[in-house]
Design a protein that fits this description.
alpha/beta, six-stranded antiparallel beta barrel, 22 helices
Amino acid sequence: MGDLIPGVGSGRLLEQLLLSRERAHRIGAVHRLDYQKALVLTHDRWKFEAGGIPQFCFLLATARNTQGPGGEDDEVLLLRVEGTAALSMEADLLAVREESLREALSSVADPSPGVVLDVSLDPFTRNRISFTGLNCRILGTFYEDHTTGRPQLAWGHDVDNFYATATYQVYKPLGEGLSEIASYLKPDPGHPVEKVRIGAVRYASTQRREQASKQPRSPVSLNVYDFIGHKTGMFGMTRMGKSNTMKTLVARTFAASELQRSKGGQPVGQLILDPQGEYANSNTQDGTEIAAIGKEHVVIYKFGGDGREPHVRPLGFNFYDDRQLDAVQAVIAEALSDSTADYVRAFLAAEYAEPVRRDDETEGEYYQRSDEAARGRLILYAALKKAGFPPPRHSSRRPQWPWRASVKMAKKLVDALELANDTVHLDRGKNGWVGVPAEALEQVVDWLLERIDDDPAAIEGLGAFAKCGAWKAAVPIYTQTHGNRSVSGYTKLQRLKGFHQPNSRDDYRRHVYDALCNGKVVIVDLHLGPENVTRRLAEDCTEFLLERQTDVFTDGRDAPHIQVVLEEAHNLFTAQRYKDDLDVWVRLAKQASKLNLGMVYATQEVTGVAHQVLANTKNWVVAHLNNRPEVKALSQYYDFGAFADAIVTSEDRGYVRLKTMSSPYIVPVQIDRYGPELVNEARRAAGLPPLVPMPVPVQPRAGA
């Protein structure tokens, strides 16, 4: 062969990594070949000895003499079995078998199937009809690259030459050889690499022959940096293992982040928006939880969090803190019965938070806006108190002072108010500012509203309230009347009380962002509370994250790396929604990469995700989908169409088809189960002692 094909020999690296006897088992030869397809000739006995040849099995084809001397032009074709193919003599062989059956049927007394069909064929004929053909797709070429000064395994996505088909030997990779193929990463000098295990190769739902052959499972590793800063899509039906894969990636990313921190690098934060509470809490499937990685490294924000556990913090705002009123205002508007009502739109458009001076306004204009915002806050705070929101005891700005609602009033108005209300005593400050104590809020507002209705010009300073836009916008919420009709007003706010944290001195979103910048895993548990409110909280949290990352980016600094984990992506990235450039989820999808925001999104509806998002997804994890339209949409990307039937029919949990940014082809993988072992690995990376493994509860059998 060396004479016929000069330079084709037995390269050491290819032999060591792919074709040694411990790593590959010969199963046949190439019968027919072109640039895209190969027909492989094999035999029943050879398939049996190799532990079977399932569909989607990787095969290796080489024109090398594996027993001969080395050569510079060695290459190995990587094939994937896609089905069976008829051999050129197969029709003749079938005719021979059919003739044998006809003879048996006419020569025996008992014409039953067991007698006729089990007739013994002569060894020569039986051997001839045991040859079969495998229809294979050529995925590309492995070869040795010496350009860097030392040989390395290189990959090409096509075939640059082929020889006579009789030249090629075909092997089934096993063990470490299969792991080498399944874990292969395209060399990229500018891309960091940290290989971590994600699972093991799994070709088929049926695994009996694999188990019977006692072949070792071939682990699959990926580059965790493929996911950091890039989009990752997880597709599959509910209960098919998407969440388990998410948790595994979270633990692996955390370990890589801690390794980077130990080398003096910037850690990677991870934000998990958890609509079902499955990431924030332990469950019997895992036998553990994400927080087990280390409560000093995992922070959970949840509705009703009371601070008893230091890593579990309340999800909410201090509704009486003017620094948090932007978020509070949006949450209140969302909770009101009809967000399209005029009074709700007016409330949302009004300014209640302490304003920031604009470049285009005078000092007088700024102070006027500040005064009006304070008047609006006064009636808003009264409405909150009326709805049952407990005011804080102390000022968030000056904890040693009791809480007061600060508002600017004319001296004559303050005098008249205190004169008419013996129990009301306002704290008079400088420049007309007064402090209204919590217990006097409703009494003061009722008195002002009554006087405004009677005669806004009756008392000096009363007209300032009557003309104030923020005050007027909040009146329907306090009075539950708008024009001549009744509105829901403050009663609709009562269901928000669980999100009110009267002792909070800052917007919780700031603490979330700080934790992310410090490389922590932050879980926002959204499964408790009104759905429309928790949805708004998730949007506000993401909006805040985008704003902070944009500020860093526009300052010319490198934004910290942060991963955002999202469920139910078909509700967030619809084609219709993607047209709105102001939508927070659309902004996240469009701006994530440049802001160093990685996005891991999960959905069971491929068609529900805008094609612009799918087209920019770098990593794909595809589990079972139960209908053809979804798989058809998926088939437009890479060569997932080859797996279409298997994706629909295989309902095994954690069995996925994986395509990553650095991997040149799709690999069928059984994802490892998230559990104590993986938790301990993450803890070791953070310098923490391992946990004692927690047993997984055994579920009783049905009927037991």
